């Protein structure tokens, strides 16, 4: 039979369906069958050609023993089993809002909206003036900015060009710290908008800064209804992880582990 001939590559519907599913990394038979049925003659020929090419190279590699003790191939096979574990989970049932609410309560910290601030700043370069002179320039400018009640739009008329932005809108602590450093960021997040008052002098790794805070929003925990779609997505992702972990645990359970004595964990004293 041709099936028993190692030099014959049989291309049938079952082989192509499996090939399509592995390429898509999705193991839904109905979806794979629908895709195969939708192929034009040209597309079908391309799929057949790709299958034959892969099978021929695979068999030749096996004949040459290239897969023996090859860690890369071992990892590929492990990944294939993991994809199978994910595909065998099937379409998850739609959970009730009660189930989702319980999931939300257990993972509430993951949905906290971080504090944000909006501000503009005036910058004086330490590399250009030195730390002491930059601080003096900033202190003098702070007096002028507040005496003249300079608004946000007037910031560009003072100081020097900063390597990043002049205006920062609705930025989180991590965003701000990435440009100004943790010490200055801590100071800015303690501020409250105060009728157009400028604050400073603040120090970053670049130099000295004067800041006009325009908006401050505290961290908050959103209501379940605000993030329901994200909660549903996260719930399903957790279900998939649990299914995959259970599948792999069952496979491992089919083997007896023979651990050398010198690798045994030490007994508790």
Describe, in plain words, how this protein is organized in 3D.
With 269 residues, the protein is of the alpha+beta class. The chain is built from 10 helices and 4 strands; from the N terminus they run H-H-H-H-H-E-H-H-E-H-H-E-E-H. Strand 3 (198-203) and strand 4 form a beta hairpin. The termini are far apart.
Topology of helices and strands:
Blueprint: H1 13-24, H2 29-38, H3 41-63, H4 71-87, H5 97-106, E1 116-125, H6 126-129, H7 131-147, E2 167-172, H8 173-180, H9 182-189, E3 198-203, E4 207-217, H10 228-253
Antiparallel strand pairs: 1-2, 1-4, 3-4
Helix pairs in contact: 1-2, 5-10, 8-9
Number of helices: 10
Ranges with pLDDT <50 over ≥5 residues? Answer: none
In helices, the fraction of residues equals: 40-55%
- DSSP strand count: 4
Element-by-element helix/strand order? HHHHHEHHEHHEEH
Coarse morphology: elongated
**Roughly what fraction of the amino acids lie in strands?**
5-15%
Cα-based radius of gyration, to the nearest Å: 31 Å
Report strand order across the widest sheet: 2-1-4-3
Largest sheet: 4 strands, antiparallel
Give a brief rundown of this model:
This protein has 269 residues and is an alpha+beta fold.
Short key terms for the protein model shown above:
269 residues, alpha+beta, four-stranded antiparallel beta sheet
């Amino acid at each position: 039979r041709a099936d028993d001939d190692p030099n014959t590559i049989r291309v049938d519907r079952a082989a192509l369906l499996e090939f399509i599913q592995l390429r898509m990394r999705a193991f839904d038979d109905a979806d794979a069958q629908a895709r195969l049925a939708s192929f034009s003659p040209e597309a079908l020929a391309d799929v057949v050609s790709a299958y034959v090419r892969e099978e021929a190279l695979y068999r030749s590699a096996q004949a040459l023993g290239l897969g023996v003790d090859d860690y890369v191939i071992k990892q590929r096979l492990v990944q294939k089993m993991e994809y199978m574990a994910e595909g065998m989970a099937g379409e998850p049932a739609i959970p009730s809002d009660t189930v989702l609410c319980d999931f939300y309560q257990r993972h509430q910290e993951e949905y906290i909206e971080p504090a944000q601030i909006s501000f503009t700043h005036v910058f004086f370069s330490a590399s250009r003036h030195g730390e002491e002179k930059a601080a003096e320039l900033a202190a003098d400018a702070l007096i002028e900015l507040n005496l003249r009640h300079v608004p946000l739009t007037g910031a560009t008329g003072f100081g020097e060009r900063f390597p990043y932005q002049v205006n920062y809108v609705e930025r989180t602590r991590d965003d701000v710290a990435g440009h100004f450093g943790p010490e200055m960021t801590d100071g800015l997040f303690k501020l409250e908008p105060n009728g157009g008052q400028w604050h400073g002098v603040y120090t970053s790794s670049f130099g000295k800064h004067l800041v006009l805070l325009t908006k401050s929003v505290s961290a908050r925990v959103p209501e379940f209804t605000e993030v329901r779609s994200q909660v549903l997505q996260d719930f399903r992702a957790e279900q998939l992880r649990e299914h995959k972990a259970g599948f792999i645990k069952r496979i491992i359970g089919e083997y007896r582990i023979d651990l050398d004595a010198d690798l045994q964990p030490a007994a508790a004293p």
